[in-house]
Amino acid sequence: MNSLKAVRLPTLTAILAFETAANTGSLASAAARLSLTPAAVSQQIRQLEQHLGIQLFARSKSGVELTPQGSAYLAYVQQAFETLRMAQQSMARNKDNISLNISALPALASRWLNPHLKQWLAQYPDVDIRIHATHGVVDFNRTAADFYLAFGDEHYPQQEKEILFQDWVFPVASPHLLTAPWLDGKHNIIYPMIHVDWGKEGQFLPDWHEWLLSAKLDECVPNRGPTYNLTSMAIDSAVAGNGILLGQQHLIKKELDEGSLIQLSEHKLPVTKPYYLIYPKRTLDKPKAVEFIQWLHSLC
């Protein structure tokens, strides 16, 4: 019971009465500012003192004076009120702005969304796009996120969801790495292999062993090479010529188009869980949200 009381906040009315009395040094002056009676202000402050278990003011006929504990508490209160005032000013400035808050897996944000974003910005220059990269589960009730570009949808049973795409992997490499054929006469791969470790999500991403088996190169043993937990880092490593990568088709399109990566085989394996667009119903009430959904689907 005591632990619950410790985390319960006092009423905002009581805190405001305390701050006003501290700034004016008088219950009567505080009452005049707040359009209350001095007795009501005094009662609010006493309730706050009881809640906190400390004495905030020393009272006298000439007015009120902060105790040391009251002075310490006032500093926190003033900081909190200043934050609230800044937030109110910010909301007032931005109330007419159109913005969309996008959370996304880092690789989706950097490798799939960003290369196309110029197209959206040219079409809707008045819409502010805010992108937050995260691997965590997005709580739409606790964040400002309007959309989440996610791998799978199992964490969002109550939200709206649409499949963006199902990806595929195939071997790619930098042309600067390929000083000789990537397969020798015995169908052995002669270059290092870049590996991606997604932890528990790795069960949905084909690895080199699975690809070799599926490509009927089952006598080959996956070569050693650097291992990354982030897809974007693995792609950068392949572009740098550190080895051959099983690249995801949608995430390496820019590199393939530019020629910084070359597809080595037509044999592909599917990533066995789709990428989704997740959003709460409230998002559809925001200006340009529907247009953004349609635009994302046009990229798939």
Kindly describe this structure.
Keywords: DNA-binding, Transcription, Transcription regulation. This is LysR family transcriptional regulator. With 300 residues, the protein is an alpha/beta fold. The chain has 10 helices and 13 strands. The chain is elongated and about 100 Å long. The two termini are 54 Å apart.
Could you outline the blueprint of secondary structure elements for this entry?
Elements: H1 2-7, H2 12-24, H3 27-34, H4 38-52, E1 57-60, E2 63-66, H5 68-94, E3 98-104, H6 106-123, E4 127-133, E5 147-151, E6 160-165, E7 168-173, E8 193-196, H7 208-214, E9 227-228, H8 231-239, E10 244-248, H9 253-258, E11 262-263, E12 269-270, E13 275-279, H10 289-299
Parallel strand pairs: 3-4, 3-5, 8-9, 8-10
Antiparallel strand pairs: 1-2, 5-13, 6-13, 7-10, 7-11, 7-12
Helix pairs in contact: 2-3, 2-4, 3-4
Strand content: 15-25%
Compute the separation of the termini in Å.
Answer: 54 Å
Q: Helicity range of the residues? A: 40-55%
Radius of gyration: 30 Å
Query: What is the average per-residue confidence, as pLDDT, rounded to a whole number?
Result: 90
Low-confidence stretches: 1-5
Element-by-element helix/strand order: HHHHEEHEHEEEEEHEHEHEEEH
Number of helices: 10
- What is the structural class? alpha/beta
Quaternary form: single chain
Could you describe the largest sheet, including whether it forms a barrel?
A: 6 strands, mixed
Total strand segments = 13
Give the CA-based shape: elongated
Pfam families: HTH_1, LysR_substrate
Family: Belongs to the LysR transcriptional regulatory family.
Protein name: LysR family transcriptional regulator
Domain HTH lysR-type: 10-67
